[in-house]
Amino acid sequence: MQRTSTGGLTTLHTKTRASERLIALPIRCVQSLKLHHEQQQREREASGIMWQPDGHVFTTLQGRPIDPTNLTRAFTTLLRKADLRRIRFHDLRHSTAALLLEQGVELVVIKELLGHAHVRLRLQRDVINTLSTTLSTALGNPESTETANGDGDEPLPCAVSVH
């Protein structure tokens, strides 16, 4: 999503076809996305004819795209409330990579998660489970962090397409 001088907010295509890929998600994330979808359905009903669907998962209360400036502003507010130093939203990718490296995850798998290489979904699931467990432990939350079971590259309910 990018603001342009001529068209307002514009959804841009990925740089290359290879940028579109499946990534594994922890079950907990899938559950959160389902709750978000239910909340969005309530927002759609409340907005009535004002709702403007755009096909994005995260939208305004009227179904419009979220302006990147507003996302940055909200993220900065969350950091301040949590008494954390200010970082760019994009820096979350770097933090994820650093956490995975510290856990001994192979670089090729990390590169896949960041969109720079291609590995099997099974390896991705193992890495996501490692990261989820690490984060849950660090945050003092021992809830289940596993992804759905699977033996190969077949898409599962815990794999999402990234565009």
Key descriptive features of the protein:
4 strands, two-stranded antiparallel ribbon, mainly alpha, 9% strand, 163 residues
Indicate the structural class. mainly alpha
Specify the overall morphology: globular
The share of residues in helices is 40-55%
What amount of the residues lies in strands? 5-15%
Strand order of the largest sheet: 1-2
Reported for the largest beta sheet, the result is:
2 strands, antiparallel
Summarize the helix and strand pattern as letters.
EEEHHHHHE
- Residue runs with pLDDT of under 50 for 5 or more positions: 144-157
How much is the average pLDDT?
Answer: 79
Distance between the termini: 11 Å
Number of helices: 5
Rg: 18 Å
**How many beta strands in the DSSP annotation?**
4
Describe this structure in words.
The protein is mainly alpha-helical and 163 residues long. Helices cover 44% and strands 9% of the residues. It is built from 5 helices and 4 strands. A two-stranded antiparallel ribbon has the order 1-2. The chain is globular and about 50 Å long.
Write the layout of secondary structure elements.
Blueprint lengths: L1 E3 L3 E3 L10 E4 L2 H21 L20 H14 L9 H12 L4 H7 L7 H18 L20 E4 L1
Antiparallel strand pairs: 1-2, 3-4
